[in-house]
Amino acid sequence: MKALWTLARYEVRSELRLISTWVYFALLFAISFIAMSAFAGVWTDFDLGSRVQLANAPRLVANLIVFISIFAVPITSGLAGRAVHRDFETRIHPLFFTTPVSKTAYLGGRYLGTVITNLLVFLGIPLGAMVAAAMPWTDPDRIGPFRLLDAYVAPFALVVIPNVLLTAALFLVLAALTRRALANQVGGMVLLLGWAVSRLFANAIDEDWVTHLSDPFGGAPLRWATRYWTVAEQNALAIPLSAPLLANRVLWLAVGLGIMAYGIHQFRFTQFARENAGRPPQGAGDEAPSLGARLRLPQPRRSFG
User: Which residues contact 102 (CB under 8 A, 6 or more apart)?
Assistant: First the structure.
């Protein structure tokens, strides 16, 4: 457990030193800020809001946070892939593989550090909306009372955090098992494309539970829970903790934990002889024989004193 937390702290410190991490944060902050400004009627030629709906109503802010966080999945892909691929890119992984660190601590520490960093980056979404709604140039008729818990904390906790736990596990395991950065880059785009296509099929099926549970990002049950609300209800009510929404979150959190468990089980502390030399020889399975299998080496007695 100590090794896991040590690796997690190292991962967070390493990511926070990179300019790209703060660029991601600034990008999400700017997108959210611009969208909320448009809802609040800052630009008459670029008006996304309704004259009677409050721009900072809990339902509208929740939809904004969910929408931006879904299309920020490639950011999660980049952060999670970098956490593991960095070791293989710098070729320091053989040294890691000889240390007294278990697979659970190694991947779990990387995963925990990635999740923390990713959530810090995604905080730019509610912060951007919050700051935009407080600007003096917004239309005062479209800004209601500030509701931190209902409008900002609740959707972030119910939707964004479970989504990051799921996608970070998926991309980190993908990077650990393939040891290729390209796999994560392609995986992020495939996930978004697959989600968009699945929404079309789920909406065409006249079964509510399929629509509720098949959305890995939790947007479908959130929309269905509020689809019949009047404008007055949208302006006043908080996001309901409906059974379909909670079931969706529990289901996909379990999927994320299952992916992480599978990745830890399949990962091997092994350096392959042909790791960067193309395809393995025929008959060698998915991977070339390890150096230990090809050479007659004495069994060492390890001491970590």
Answer: 3
Helices and strands (H, E) in the chain, number of each type: 15, 0
Q: What is the mean pLDDT of each run of 10 residues along the chain (305 residues)?
A: 84 90 95 90 64 82 90 88 75 68 84 93 94 88 87 91 92 84 75 78 69 83 84 85 89 92 83 48 50 70 83
The whole-angstrom separation of Cα 191 and Cα 186 is 9
Q: How far is CA 139 from its chain centroid?
A: 34
Name the nearest CA neighbour of 124 among 199, 28, 188, 202: 28
Query: Hey, which residues does 272 pair with through a beta bridge?
Result: 290
CB 255 within 8 A of CB 167: no
- Using a 10 angstrom Cβ sphere, with 0-12 exposed, 13-18 middle and 19 or more buried, the burial of residue 260 is buried
Question: Rounded distance, CA 32 to CA 44, Å?
Answer: 18
Strand partners, 290: 272
**Is there a contact between 154 and 112 (Cβ–Cβ < 8 Å)?**
no
Residue pair 302/213 in contact (Cβ under 8 Å)? The answer is no
pTM over 0.90: no
| Whether 41 contacts 139, CB under 8 Å | yes
- Tokens (6 digits) for 227: 């689809």
